[in-house]
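[job 4471] stage=fold_predict status=RUNNING
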Amino acid sequence: MEQFELVLGIESSCDETAAAVVKNGREVLSNVISSQVQIHQKYGGVVPEVASRNHLERVLPVVDEAVRTAGVSLREVAGVAVTYGPGLVGSLLVGVSVAKALAFALKVPLIGINHIEGHIYANFLAFPELVPPFLCLTVSGGHTALLVIHEPGRYEVLGNTRDDAAGEAFDKVARVLGLGYPGGPEIEKAARRGDPEAFSFPRALQGEDTLDFSFSGLKTAVLNHLNQRRQKTGAASLSQDEVADIAASFQAAIIDSLVEKTVLAMERTGIKQIALSGGVSANMALRERLEAVAKERGAQFFAPPLKYTTDNAAMIASAGYYRLMAGERSEMSLNAIPDLRFSGV
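[job 4471] inference complete, writing structure tokens
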């Protein structure tokens, strides 16, 4: 069997330009991220054109830094893994183009990785003791899904969001509350000062025999509450206490939905290992609730360090390693697919 000790990963699906070198799928030798958060904050969200231009400027220096930090040379890299979707098409194209060029020049295999799949591998990197099968709740700005990880590269999708992803809902509600970008951390910060029972926002699909999620109605409920309040009081702005209570109540509704479906997945599958991944996995209130329910049911809970919760290339390199070891390869015709689906295999 061909060996792939060192895999170079490249990630550029949204507003992080990242490169990493991972050894044997689990040991991170380097993980370099150039974030564009400050650039996009003034716009209240990611501007695709600005993001792709910044990726163009940063991708090669970031790759160079990742290789240098790893203490290896490019000639030692045995494979190149890259995110090819889903994401912003311009941003994805930058990473895919560089990955293809490097794989061609180094005469090593190229492997395209689904960004959602990549998030799963944050837990492989952080926990050497974690072995399949396990449940994985992946929650980010663009995705909310419950999966069974049967083995590296073989997954079963139990449930998906039917509309907005949890992270998307966080961003949209943060915007209408006048909080900053990205919305998740700002909502969490405000929620610490608020009462999670101040408002009774809906938990869509609660009690229903499904493992799917829905957050569009919750977002709309917050917007309706704000509109009704303004009509009644005539006040255009909210007090800090009002913002805190709305943030806390909204966050509680999100977490209740995520936890309920995860518990239902545990009951259906009998699996006693739960992993959390994706950008929203940085939310400490969510971590604490999931850890508590896992403990109550005699299950183990895994949540990666914060450095692996945001978009990063180490998770892409790890996923790439296992794909390459399974004999998979991508053609040099690999292209960015902004609406790439993740169905498991």
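[job 4471] summary: The chain is about 45% helix and 20% strand.
[job 4471] exit 0
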